[in-house]
């Protein structure tokens, strides 16, 4: 029986280990800052900020789950917590009575406005300010390629939010 596993070269292994390190450390760093400064986690902030930039500050729950990179169940629990805080409401989608959308309230928008400056400073400190403009372009292009393989629906949602 032969082993035809395409093992990683030394360079490939180093690239993978560095990526795995970032995938572990960066979310924990961002999450800690948000919890410390805003009493929300990164997933909840992703929901709030995602809604804040949408027309009418509303988005179907299924699309929001993709954008926030969470399961429908996890999203539902997080939205419930945000509802209790008065930052989000659920309502029937105007165009599809079977679907539910989350809507950012005025209080939620005010919360995003308070949270965003410290969050942006942390994103700058940990990512943006340590890379050159060329490296940021490379990072974006690399992430687009990886998302095409791992989560094309997330890439599509990101692209839709740029329009």
TrEMBL record:
Coiled coil: none annotated. Residues 12-148 form the HTH marR-type domain. One of its GO terms (molecular function) is DNA binding. Transmembrane segments: none annotated. PROSITE patterns: HTH_MARR_2 (PS50995). Keywords: DNA-binding. InterPro entries: HTH_MarR-typ, MarR/SlyA-like, WH-like_DNA-bd_sf, WH_DNA-bd_sf. The keyword Cell inner membrane does not apply. Gene3D superfamilies: Winged helix-like DNA-binding domain superfamily/Winged helix DNA-binding domain (1.10.10.10). This is DNA-binding MarR family transcriptional regulator.
């Amino acid at each position: 029986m032969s082993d035809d596993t395409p093992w990683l070269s030394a360079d490939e292994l180093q690239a993978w280990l560095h990526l795995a390190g970032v995938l572990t450390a960066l979310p924990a760093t961002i999450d800690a800052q948000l919890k410390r400064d805003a009493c929300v986690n990164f997933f909840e902030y992703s929901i709030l900020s995602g809604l804040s930039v949408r027309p009418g500050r509303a988005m179907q729950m299924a699309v929001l789950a993709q954008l926030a990179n969470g399961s429908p169940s996890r999203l539902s629990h997080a939205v419930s917590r945000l509802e209790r805080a008065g930052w989000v409401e659920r309502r029937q989608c105007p165009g599809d009575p079977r679907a539910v959308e989350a809507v950012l309230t005025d209080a939620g928008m005010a919360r995003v406005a308070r949270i965003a400056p410290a969050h942006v400073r942390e994103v700058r400190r940990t990512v943006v300010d340590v890379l050159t403009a060329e490296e940021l372009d490379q990072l974006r292009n690399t992430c687009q390629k990886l998302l095409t393989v791992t989560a094309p629906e997330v890439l599509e949602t990101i692209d839709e939010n740029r329009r």
